Amino acid sequence: MAVERTLSILKPDATRRNLTGKINAVFEEHGLRIVAQKRIQLTPATAGAFYAVHKERPFYNDLVSFMISGPVVVQVLEGENAVAKNRDVMGATDPKKAEAHTIRAKFAESIEANSVHGSDSLENAKNEIAFFFAGTEILP
Ligand code: CMP
């Protein structure tokens, strides 16, 4: 297996409930290393651009509104098979369908306020990491 990097976002429902440390502990327990991290406020333009792939979906406007409703923590996670591993650790998008040990089963409030985002492929991970981080901000 190869060492990969993936983009993670702790969403506004997680920062509002002061869950940054608890969620980060889950990543680290599963061998994912946080090699970059910053707490930022997304704007309508940045949230809209980040989720542009969902522009035609009925939930797009609500998703953008939610993502700008409070600070987020954007992160780069590094580890063996990091893209797939993070998706396992996060659980299904809809917390009602997520396995019990996952972050979304434990912490998410709804399919929209689902606490975390993680890249869904290695190619998207590269693009999503570059969206938020300069190479000099990533410190393995
Ligand atoms: P995320 O992994 O960040 O990618 C897109 C987000 O859209 C997703 O998590 C959900 O939080 C949000 N979303 C809201 N409604 C839906 C829906 N019906 N289906 C899929 N994603 C949704």
Automatic annotation (TrEMBL):
The active site is at residue 117. Residues 3-140 form the Nucleoside diphosphate kinase-like domain. Gene3D superfamilies: Nucleoside diphosphate kinase-like domain. Major role in the synthesis of nucleoside triphosphates other than ATP. The ATP gamma phosphate is transferred to the NDP beta phosphate via a ping-pong mechanism, using a phosphorylated active-site intermediate. CDD domains: NDPk_I. This is Nucleoside diphosphate kinase. The keyword Transmembrane helix does not apply. ATP binds at residues 11, 59, 87, 93, 104, 114. Its main location: cytoplasm. GO terms for cellular component: cytoplasm. Its EC number is 2.7.4.6. It comes from Komagataeibacter melaceti. The gene is ndk. It comes from the Bacteria. Belongs to the NDK family. GO terms for molecular function: ATP binding; metal ion binding; nucleoside diphosphate kinase activity. PROSITE patterns: NDPK (PS00469), NDPK_LIKE (PS51374). The keyword Cytoplasm applies.
